[in-house]
Design a protein that fits this description.
Chain lengths: 404, 404, 394, 394
Amino acid sequence: MDFAFTEDEERLRAEIKAFIARQLTPEVKAQLIAEREGHGRGPLAAAFFRDIYERGWLGVSWPKQYGGQGANRFAQYIVEEEFYRAAQLVIGGGGTGVPAVLAAGTEEQKRYYVPGSIRREISFCQGYSEPHCGTDLAGIRCRATRHGEIFIINGQKIYTTGAQAATHIYLMVRTDPNSKRQAGLSILLVPMNTPGITIRPLWTIQSDPPAPPKTTYGEPRTNEVFFDNVEVPATCLLGAEGDGWAVAQRGLNLDRVGAWRYLISVMRDEDIVNLIKKDEPPTEGLRQDPRVRDKLAELWTEGQVCRLMTMRSLSLEQRGGRFKYEGSAEKIWAPEHGVRATEAISQILGPYAQLLNGSPHAINNGVFAHNLLGAFQSTVNHGSVQVMRDQVARKGLGMPKQRN
Amino acid sequence: MDFAFTEDEERLRAEIKAFIARQLTPEVKAQLIAEREGHGRGPLAAAFFRDIYERGWLGVSWPKQYGGQGANRFAQYIVEEEFYRAAQLVIGGGGTGVPAVLAAGTEEQKRYYVPGSIRREISFCQGYSEPHCGTDLAGIRCRATRHGEIFIINGQKIYTTGAQAATHIYLMVRTDPNSKRQAGLSILLVPMNTPGITIRPLWTIQSDPPAPPKTTYGEPRTNEVFFDNVEVPATCLLGAEGDGWAVAQRGLNLDRVGAWRYLISVMRDEDIVNLIKKDEPPTEGLRQDPRVRDKLAELWTEGQVCRLMTMRSLSLEQRGGRFKYEGSAEKIWAPEHGVRATEAISQILGPYAQLLNGSPHAINNGVFAHNLLGAFQSTVNHGSVQVMRDQVARKGLGMPKQRN
Amino acid sequence: MDVLSDEQEALIQRTAGEFLAAECPPSLVRAVEKSEEKYSKQLWTKFADLGWLGLCLPEEQGGQGLPLTYLGLVLEEVGRYLAPLPVHSTMVPALVLASFGTPVQMKLLERVACGELLLSFGIVERSGRWSTDAIALSGRRDGNDIVLNGSKYFVDNFRIAQKCMVAVRMFGADGGDEGPAAVLVDTASAGIHCEPLLTTAKDGESVVRFDDVRVPQSNRVGAPRQGRAAVDALMDYASVFLVSQMQGAARRAMEFAVEYVKHREAFGQPIGAFQAIQHMAADMVNAVDGTQLLGREAVWRLSRGLPARVEVAQAKSFANEKCLMVCRSAQQMHGGIGFIAEFDLNLWYRRVTSWTLRGGTTYEHRARIASALLDTPGEVRLGRALELPAAAPD
Amino acid sequence: MDVLSDEQEALIQRTAGEFLAAECPPSLVRAVEKSEEKYSKQLWTKFADLGWLGLCLPEEQGGQGLPLTYLGLVLEEVGRYLAPLPVHSTMVPALVLASFGTPVQMKLLERVACGELLLSFGIVERSGRWSTDAIALSGRRDGNDIVLNGSKYFVDNFRIAQKCMVAVRMFGADGGDEGPAAVLVDTASAGIHCEPLLTTAKDGESVVRFDDVRVPQSNRVGAPRQGRAAVDALMDYASVFLVSQMQGAARRAMEFAVEYVKHREAFGQPIGAFQAIQHMAADMVNAVDGTQLLGREAVWRLSRGLPARVEVAQAKSFANEKCLMVCRSAQQMHGGIGFIAEFDLNLWYRRVTSWTLRGGTTYEHRARIASALLDTPGEVRLGRALELPAAAPD
């Protein structure tokens, strides 16, 4: 039992912080924001990423033989945390694609995707949900038919966030047309520039006006992706054919934990405390209000539980253990904390909490209002809290399945 | 839409209050408590009940032809509320037996049970639950076999509160041995002195020390009742043979609403406010604590919702309407409010909230501590809040049943 | 006692609902969000022509003189269909005029009843607080005029209204504080600056600055001694009719969600067959029903002229938490789709988030309830109305 | 960083658990409730003989000198089996002695380690408040003595302890206030009156009155300047090890309930197959796990000598609400049977209700957290420890 980072880890954190203080200039930040808004990568941003790359922080926990640093899960967490805090950059090695490639890929796939991702030449979007099945992935219909050494893909995906910028899609398809539920699914890694792929934007309630940085589920856009006789070589297959469910499960578990998931759930706790403690108009006086103080202490404590559950997941992973229920449990606690916090904060701030980004008099660029628009999404995406509770009860506690 | 009692109803309330102020002397009160503790009825208590009887308040809403006053549901509510508040007496016409007799009984049964109940010569305990089925009454096994003009009853009931004092048991039995679930059940009205009935006390966590008045689920004792070849005439049948489920449902619905259910959920709200506003040791100073004030206002508002839901049920009944979901909804809200209130109050009172009846330094005879022991029972008894939620969703909103 | 609607009440509510169901589809709501005016003039005219605005105004001013409870029912429907109409912002000050106005001011109600005169009102200032104590905008008496200086924040529909009822702190010519008062101001007066806000509701709130705005003393609402009472009424009407709207909107969001989960299949059946979804729905029912009961009781008390500050506070504090929960649960039950801008459900969610933050926060309303509970003599009892002490927070 | 138990920690906890599983059945817990002493002397002897008491005491005094985290794990098991042993009331003051005691006082730990010396401690007074400011029991210096006057409320196991560590307010012979201090008092001293309380836990709390009780100055714990630090430590240990017990007990109640619903049939299947019951259970898991993580972090910080007042406050405020929720849910999952006295589950429920009310309420602990958040300079960040300002409430 050890609740502190090691000296090495603290040193890494200090290095990153110093780097960010030095290199993340307002100009770089502006180009990063422009890139996120779809205006392509500016030269300063490119240089910034090159510098990060050279320090080995892109994919810090990935194996050295594929260009990573072979560092542990805590080093990865530190990189992720500092860059996400500083500029909402998702850096360090989590996410959808590469961890699954490392777990299930062929040697060739590892040699291709891992270094490419580290150089940020390759990026993945996630092709899971379909219009008729959001949470229930076992109902997937998008099919890939094998014809010798190629697959032909037909179908549709939805909520494919980042499809417009990704080089590849991490795609779950049904390869056995006669299969049902989890069986007969496979994962394909498909280049987005393959002919027959069409992307249609879905604008979210965060698009007009665009949500400010640090908003939970502040993405202005997600997508539908259509596959019309898309032909890819069979080498795109990740893991065995028909083994897609198992390949995806581990990825999903990792997706439900880690720095990003933690931070989007708790940054508002820090923001509201730091706002209230400034004690300036229009929130002056709240600092001394015992009701507000009590509520902030409650939220803070819940936020600490988010942090500690994240550390528990990292500890488990670092030991090489598998989650029994911990990932699902965290994916209940953190999003619901986010919702509770957001709604409680709105009652503390009163009418100011309804002001969106760009409105006169908006507090912190309207982040608290945009959180109201985004917080509940976190209880739905990547496995709803209802499904997560089922899993905690069934897998964690061994409770029986309902029969009729 | 009218949220006030009528002048007549207010006059009735004033009469009852005046009666109580005059007649409910400390001596009478002491005899009532002694009676509740199983020491039989004292002469003063008997006179007190005779006076109430003469004023027509026992069964005030029951039909005149059977000795009632034929008053409306609100008059009944007022009688119930005032007597329960004054001395935790359940008077006025609610409860398990007579309403069902009035709804489903034969003329002969009405002539026997209604006047007898008004004179308090007849009283019912409720024979629903069995050891293997608490909430799921459709699983009842206690069976009554018909032999011509008699039934022979064998089986067991549990949580039969008040069995030791009741003259009759309102008993749900399976009359068709081949039936399943709701079908084939019947209601029998069985005199408790019939040979073959054995009562075994089940002492509750409120028994040692005994809970003080106004405790939610403060009963020190409930019972198991065993039926060993108990022979009763077929005239004991209430409603048609095999129709027991329907007969019981309406009774259960009425059991889930009304003054008693409302008051056991909210009396603690009044008690804590009245305690805090006295501003005396050991709770002095809390009156000015904004956190406590905020919480009390929240509880009070929830308590108002309990009251208004009760008024809604009475309005519906008074119009002769049937509940769609309202009874079940109230039976979620009020008990869960009771739990929230009890637990919140305990954190306001701190260590004093753990002191039981008779302990030195206990506040209000330990009622807040005993509520901690009893409050959750209210979410379980007479239909758990889980079953109630099912009913609101299915019957109220028409949501579908799960299939496999 | 009968807390259910009677036949006439049910009829009027149903009629209003049917009208809005036909005339106010979500596409209109959405179009108005993008408009400059933030209301539909066409719908307003139809609405007014049907007499809905005059429902509870005095018969002498062309109204129908029905109790306020009817307006509450109509506003439930306005909320239900998110009707982009300045009913709330117009009727709240109109009702204050109906209670406190001078004969000349009462005359204005004729134009309100027929839809000609749009009103707005300003209470909250920079602090954001819903409290008479926080009213600092000064109305200094100067000859026959009152000179207004200060700002009102979060003023709804100021830009389309001809007049605004402004809660001010009056000062005599000698600078003496004369307490709160309500003053009617022409929105076109010199010295007024209006800055539109962008809210989650995407409706017509603004910040309005008053720089030496002059209005005649006769624009003060009611007699000088009634200033505080008029401001109290303005705040109570504003809060309680927001509750009507919120409840109507939340109920609609719940109905959408229940309908959706009855048909949306996952894991081999309609997700509405799952107990977790059913129980979420059951809690939504109690939340909207509880809001309805508290809200209607408060409006009913106002309609009878009974003290109702505590009941208003109960209703709004409860509605703030519960209606948001209902709309959030409705979004959750819809999964990802509710997050997509073009899907209608979020119109309801976005409005209710805003409405929970206007007309007083939960903290503010609970402070008032607590004062009635704890700063008064005698024991409390549920079912017996509480009165506020003179020094209660507001 | 590794927040999980390491092998040795897991081994020690398992061993303690196995010992108590064998030696401390619910029947013993129930029997002790009815006893005068409110603890099992026999079990205490066995427990001490196995060396559990000395686990984290200094090696010089016969202890094993392990970090405090080990005691936390053992107390999780004590809570889990509701062991009717004065471990908490003895070890809390013992640890204060280990940190602050004079050499003579340290010698007492030898007798603690072998189970010979039972201790108790008194903090709270009539106000019921968990706060140094609320300590009014006076310790007036008089020659070589300290004269104690006042009362301690809710003192656990006073009647069986030989010594009690009392938090007092010291006064010089001249009457000058010298601040808080901890003083060791023989429980048999003249002038002590003990009045047993009857709590939901049915354990050994009392109110203890001190009328001119004389103790030598050498009984003061630690150096004069360390008085406040010693009292702080006494309070923090008391709170955080209660969290260990509560978490162990709540986890056990959860396990009982999960086991019960797996087998209890209704509506044609085990009720544990119903989603509503499963989701209740999932929330119970997060509640006990959250308590465990917060509690262990706080104990770990104490074991490292790091400031931990905020972490203790986090753990206790969270535990108060969550462990009660878990035990209440366990009762609900058992339906009517949990309400019957002879059914074991309510032993857990009744103890946890009491423990949520001792060692500081949620309000009190949150006030401390809020002070660290808001009354300090600079921005806060999760993951960076907070420090309390000097003037924080406690």
